[in-house]
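Slide 14.
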Amino acid sequence: MAHTDHQTMRRVLCREIAGTIGLLTDEHDFRTMRRYRSFTFDDHTTYLRQVEAVLEARAAQGTHTTLALFDPEDYADYCAQAGLDPEAPASRTRFTAELAATGPTIPYDGRPLATLLPDLVDEAVRQATWEYATTLLSRLGPCPTCGEDIGKAAFTRASDLLVRILDTAPPGNRHLVCSVSGPPDTLISVLHGDQDGHGDTRLDEAEALEFTSVLALGLATRSPGGLVLRTSAPGRSDGVYGWRLRAGNLEPLTASEVFDAYCTDAVSGELISPESGVDYRRPPDLGDESPAPGHRH
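Slide 15: predicted structure.
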């Protein structure tokens, strides 16, 4: 009887243990990991199928699992710096534990792995974009004229602009895209905002932080770019409007300029047929910025 009770208690404790699986999302990373003899999988498709079986089994037991993006090059660097043997499965476990604390992760929620993989990659891109933007902002340093931290001031200003964009938008769900051209790279950030029954917009905190950082970088460095907002509500045509990011300011686009931007392929420059049920509009007036929303020298 005591032995049975101990087994029952252990099963209960096992359900309390959260786990993380470091996932190789593409063929290239999978082939890179095959250089280790202790990594015994031969086929990426089979590997993903086995991972999904493990996830389903853990979910059936009531165990929470997090998916992390496993990068073989980062793993090799981690082992070299920590003095670990990259062939040892325990080294991969330690690296995965680090990913759970610091890297891009998403929870397993029962959806097929084929659906979750793009979400995990998107999360990795989001985190990398945020880290890159914040690094560049921090390197701007203080203003030589007044000593104010340029990056922090730009972030404050970007936050103020985002709030006013959302406050002046028509009711409904919002989808925002901000792009800032390099050098060296063009950064693109996406922010989703769903409106609840009380008219309040719910934002993902991590998405909002990344979006604001990218917008702040464009404002601070006076880089060219743009911001587009699309609103959707039942029984009403979607509305699309936007702003041009130029010389550290947001300049409203005309309805025709928004139409041209939305109906032109960004890569080929060819025209794209406009969507039905979409109105291309000039954005609402954001009003005058407060006297000191951010650094303006």
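Speaker note: The longest strand covers residues 236-246.
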